[in-house]
Each structure stands twice: as C-alpha cells, then as structure tokens.
Design a protein that fits this description.
Blueprint lengths: L15 H7 L1 H28 L4 H4 L4 H9 L2 H16 L6 H16 L8 H10 L4 H29 L3 H8 L1 H33 L5 H31 L1 H28 L6 H16 L9 H10 L5 H43 L2 E3 L6 E3 L2
Antiparallel strand pairs: 1-2
C-alpha cells in the first residue's frame, strides 16, 4: 500500500476536548506498557503453577504443530489490519495498512491490561482518533468490522451446531455444573446491563426535568445533536457500501472468516499436538464459548476466566492429564505470544512515527534568502 499521508480531520474534531481524547492512546499505552510485564509475569506464574511439574516433552506427541500454531496466532492481527485499511480506503481516508496495524496492535496491548468486559471498541475508537481519523468515521469503521465479525462468528457457530447435530445444547444441559456457571454468568451480565440502562434512564429523566440545571440540560442537548449527526453520517456511509462497496464487503468478509477460523482452530491444533483427536466443529464451538465467557470476565485480558472456561468446557472431551498442560500451552500461544508481537510491532511503528515527526520539525526551518540564516517556516 502507498505511504500514509497526513489525515484530514473535520473542523468539529479540532475542539480542545477532542484533542484531549486523541491524546488518550498515548497515555493508555504508557500505562499499558508499564503494567503489562507485571500482569504477564503474574499470569505466567499462575500457568506454571497449574502445570504442577508436568513434563511437557512427555505429553506432546506432535511438537512440530506448536511451531505452526506460533505462526498462525499472528494471522488474525494481520487480517484485522487489512480489513481496517481496506474500509478506510473505501471511505477515502488517508489511512493505510501501517496505520491500521498500529491501531490494531495498540488496541491489543491496551486491552490486555483493562477488564475484558469493557470491550475493545472504546479503546480502538481512541486509537483511531489518535491517528487523526475523525470521530464519526472512526465509529463507522468500527461498525463495519463489528458487523462482519458478528455475521461470521454466528455463521460459524450455526454451521458447527448443525454438523454436531446440536449436541452442544444436550451437553450443556446435562452437566449441572456447566449449566449453573453459564446461568450465573448470564445473570450477572444481564443485571449489569439492566442497572446501566436504569441509571441512564434516571439521569435522562433528571436532566429533562431540569433538576441538574440549565447548563447541564443545554450541554445534553448539544450532545444529542452531535450524536444525531454521527448517526446520519454513519447511515450515509453504510448506504454507500450497499451502493458501491459490495465486492469490498465480500473481500473483507473473507478476511474476517480467515481471522476467526484461525482463532477458533488454535485450541484444536494444540490438543492435536498433545495426541487428542481433532474434532473441528466441536472444538470451534468450545473455543467460541471460552471466548464468550472470558470476554465478560472483569479482569485484565480475561485472566483467570479464560483458563477456567477452557478447563470447564474441554475437560469432558480431553483426558485430565492432558487438559491442564494443553490449557497452559493454549493460553501462552493464543494470548501472550501474539500480545508480545503486538507490543513489539506497536513500539517499532510508534518509534518510526516519532522519528518522522522529529525530522519534519527539523525541516521547518528554512534559509532566509537575504541573510542566509535559518528562519522558522511560516
């Protein structure tokens, strides 16, 4: 792809408050890169403790498959960046693959030290704005990718349910422990959503009644108008996709399918390396359930929840002597290895951008034609 040029931002996004939000990724990454080594060491210590002195060399039957896994874990990061860059080009944004990769890797690093239940979308929004994409188009890009991810994951889940004869429902219903934990998780998530909606409704009622004052009411009205303009812009962008971007949507759906099929295959390949017969449809379903559970765990990167969900769901299909070391290997390969790669990639891209900015500032001084002395550029 061509070299990125300076992005064009809307005048509305030159407001000081927006500039503050654009600087958030830098602060977030500073905190993330400081905390990440501590979090990673803590989780690695837990995983080593979980192994309990198990000799992996005795358990592994096909160690070469771990080399394949070590390469495949970076495919989702690259595919996701390609999708983001292609949609940005469709929207005529000066935002190439390098900047898309920077946004994706930065989001991965920041999301690893924040609770998974907060989601990666707000963090990605901040990184897009930090790269100069205006807030409306940032939301549009995120909505494009969210729609693709939802469609592909639901399609894969529906396909796997059909292949397995919908035995997953019988399996979950037959195990009281799994059913109770899933029920508790869903109840907790539902209560959180309900409390948030009630709080928003109560605040809106108070503002509408004028209890919080005229200034808050006027600020809320301006916010609502801004949201309406954002929604109108996003609707126009989606309409342009249906008019002109159908082929691009199909291409990006292909990248999304590749991304999720690889992610869902990691656990099965690791189990295959431990001598467990690979059952793609079943293991894809189990991996999807593990990811769903870990995504609502209020710990950094879903730590603890992902490991517990893996053990809980895979234990009925894998021998107990294999499931624990397989879980530890899966967590290291599926989460920490791409995270290390993302942190290194982001650091190198960030350093390159800083060097380019410094060089541009140095070139701002030009020579005065009369005196020959360097003068600041106007």
């Amino acid at each position: 792809m061509s070299e990125d040029a300076a992005p064009k931002a809307e005048a509305a996004d030159d407001h000081p408050a927006v500039s503050h939000w654009r600087n958030m990724p830098r602060r977030t990454l500073t905190i993330a890169l400081s905390i990440l080594p501590i979090v990673a060491l803590g989780n690695v210590a837990v995983l080593i403790y979980a192994l309990g002195g198990i000799n992996l060399s005795e358990k592994l039957k096909e160690p070469n498959l771990l080399g394949l896994v070590a390469l495949l874990v970076f495919v989702p990061m690259i595919a996701n960046s390609m999708r983001l860059a292609l949609w940005a080009r469709f929207l005529d944004l000066e935002f190439g693959f390098r900047k898309a990769l920077k946004v994706i890797t930065g989001t991965m690093v920041a999301n690893s030290v924040t609770p998974s239940s907060t989601g990666g979308m707000p963090i990605k929004l901040l990184f897009l704005m930090g790269e100069g994409v205006d807030s409306r188009r940032s939301i549009t890009l995120i909505s494009f990718q969210a729609a693709e991810d939802t469609f592909i994951t639901l399609a894969i889940v529906a396909l796997c349910l059909g292949i397995t004869g919908y035995a997953m429902f019988e399996f979950i219903g037959s195990d009281p422990l799994i059913l109770a934990r899933l029920d508790g998780t869903l109840r907790t998530a539902s209560m959180i959503v309900l409390c948030v909606l009630l709080a928003i409704a109560a605040i809106a009622a108070l503002i509408g009644a004028g209890v919080m004052g005229r200034r808050v009411r006027e600020w809320t009205a301006r916010l609502i108008n801004r949201i309406k303009s954002h929604v109108a812009q996003i609707a126009r962008d989606w309409a342009s996709v249906f008019r002109q971007g159908k082929w691009l949507a199909l291409i990006n759906l292909g990248f999304s399918a590749l991304q999720w099929l690889v992610r869902f295959s990691i656990a099965g390949l690791i189990l295959l390396a431990f001598g467990v017969e690979w059952q793609p449809a079943l293991f894809w379903l189990l991996q999807w359930l593990v990811q769903t559970i870990s995504s609502i765990v209020p710990t950094p990167g879903g730590a603890g929840g992902a490991e517990a969900a893996f053990l809980l769901l895979f234990a009925p299909f894998v021998a107990i002597g294999v499931v624990v070391p397989a879980m530890s290997t899966w967590r290291l390969m599926h989460f920490y290895l791409p995270l290390v790669g993302a942190a290194l990639t982001f650091f190198l891209l960030h350093r390159r951008d800083r060097a380019r900015v410094k060089a541009a500032k140095d070139n701002e001084e030009i020579a005065d034609p009369e005196t020959g002395l360097p003068q600041p550029a106007e």
